[in-house]
Amino acid sequence: MPKGGRKGGHKGRVRQYTSPEEIDAQIKAEHEKAREAELEEGGEGVPKDPTKEKKDHSSDESDEDDEDYQAKRKGVEGLIDIENPNRAAQASKKVTQLDMEGPRELSRREREEIEKQKAKERYMKMHLAGKTDQAKADLARLAIIRKQREEAAKKKEEEKKLKDGTGAAVKGLQSMSLNK
């Protein structure tokens, strides 16, 4: 602990919590002050719009908070339009309001996956047509292998013919020698 610091600190103190009733009372007091300020600004002799008055009494406290927030802008807030996402109540949609028939936007991953599949299909078509570099190399290799196999088949046939020819000559000589 640094010299000259507090003794005891904040850790041993009793915490005080505000009850929900007190919070409601504070909110109502703030709304009354805001209404009085609106009356003073508008003038006491000017009649208020009855629709606004009905709206104030029938609306929720969150609606009133939004109206007071916009009415009480101080300093630079009046010049800069700031949207606080925590301040505005988000409107939830009902299932009946959702538009299921319209086109649904795809997420980035879904779009990328679809593009990948299309690119793969395009490549396979080009490959089967023999227009890709890999297909050309494969076809060249196949041509070389076919030539080698044809040459091997010709050699076998020639050897077979020679064998048959020499074999018949040898048999003929053997048969002659046996006849004697």
Oligomer: single chain
Largest sheet: none
Tell me the helix content: 55-70%
The pLDDT mean sits at 76
- For the CA atoms, what is the radius of gyration? 48 Å
H and E string: HHHHH
Find the structural class using helix and strand composition: mainly alpha
Organism: Pyxicephalus adspersus
Pfam family, one: PP28
Protein name: Casein kinase substrate phosphoprotein PP28 domain-containing protein
InterPro entries: Casein_kinase_sb_PP28, HAP28
Structure write-up:
This is Casein kinase substrate phosphoprotein PP28 domain-containing protein. There is one protein chain. The protein is mainly alpha-helical. The chain has a domain at about 110-180. About 60% of the residues lie in helices and about 0% in strands. It starts with 19 loop residues before the first helix and ends with a helix.
Summarize the structure.
The chain has helices at residues 20-42, 50-58, 61-71, 108-129, 133-179. It is mostly helical and 180 residues long.
Task: Write the SSE topology.
Blueprint: H1 20-42, H2 50-58, H3 61-71, H4 108-129, H5 133-179
Keywords:
HAP28; mainly alpha; rod-shaped
